Amino acid sequence: MTVIVQKYGGTSVGTAERIRAVAERVAATVQSGIRCVVVVSAMGHSTDGLVDLANQMMNEPNRREMDALLATGEQVSIALVAMALQAKGIQSQSMTGWQAGIRTEAVHGAARIESIDTARLDALLASGIVPVIAGFQGIHDGEITTLGRGGSDTTAVAIAAALRADRCEIYTDVEGVYTADPRVVPVAGKLSVISYEEMLELATLGSQVLHPRAVETSKQHGVTLVVRSSFTQAEGTVITDMATMEGMRIVTGVATEKEVARIAVLGIPTMQHHLSEMFTALAQEQVNVDVIVQSVVKTGEVDVSFTVAEADVERAIRICEGLKALLGYREIMQELELSKVSIVGAGMITNPGVAAQMFAALETVGAEIKMVSTSEIKVSCVIANEQLHEAVNQVHRVFALDELNR
Ligand code: ADP
Ligand code: ASP
Ligand code: MG
Known about the structure:
Bound molecules: adenosine-5'-diphosphate, aspartic acid, magnesium ion
């Protein structure tokens, strides 16, 4: 019997009416003879509301308590979706992450799923009961953990992998993966198919439509992943192996990330070049460092600059200041209100000059390029927030993405 996992995001379960619509879609799937497992997010933007509340209690709230709080959002929606299904005569049962056997590593706020004990899930499915599982949460040694913002996608893919489901469908508020965020670039086109590799880059570089670890997990376990809208019947985007795709586009999509900050540690004597200590200390404090640039400005001295999320900038500077004696640097500077714009495309590997074209596009809109980072299939540039909108639209145009679907 075909088994599919359907994941519904925040907007898809944002109101009582939307929850009834979700139940309608699940009921239709079940009635067509498919075994369906449902994974849901918290209603609407309720997780943001919980984060706001926590921040009113203390600065940098305790991570354990934060997980206890944020996990409640999904518990509301699992119960409501199960009720809506029961109201339609579909047998259904809600399950928290731990009831569904989702074990994670011992990290609050960004835990990876380590294993899933599917015994309870298997029993429900065998009795024809539709499990409705809370996304984003798991358990480690009796402690509630969460997977990081947007993590319900990863729950769905991990469950699909554990059950060897035929596919995992991610239902959201857009009709699939677009060439750019359709809210930022109105002419962005929907992609019918995209490779795991390109999707992983886009997701990591800020395309919120899929959680990066969901893409990673689906590639690792060969889970067929589809992104669709819960508001329409339109076919979505299939994420698949690069090998099965015909021809590679040079640039498949543009991603953006806001609230980026740059920290520059200036005048580090090369004799005291303890960079590994600095980045280890940042990692130990869960500060995610992104683009790193090191430059030799004068003999015997290096400058190192790196980007972090704006929310982490104070913590990152505190950590670097704590290492002043070890590093011997002259000064630390910070620059806020930056963004990152990135292009991703598997065809870049064989086409030189793509970075130059991107720089030219950014120059056209007067955006100063503050940092650059590249991989085989992406180019990222850090620019000022105020130029982001114009920049992303210009880059989208220059790489002929405006013409897709026309
Ligand atoms: P959900 O609550 O369903 O998980 P998200 O808000 O996490 O939904 O993700 C969907 C949103 O992702 C869309 O509304 C869209 O604004 C944004 N997005 C960013 N980049 C892209 C892209 N390349 N394609 C589609 N949507 C994108
Ligand atoms: N509710 C969580 C969040 O808002 C998880 C998710 O929606 O995927 O980040
Ligand atoms: Mg999401």
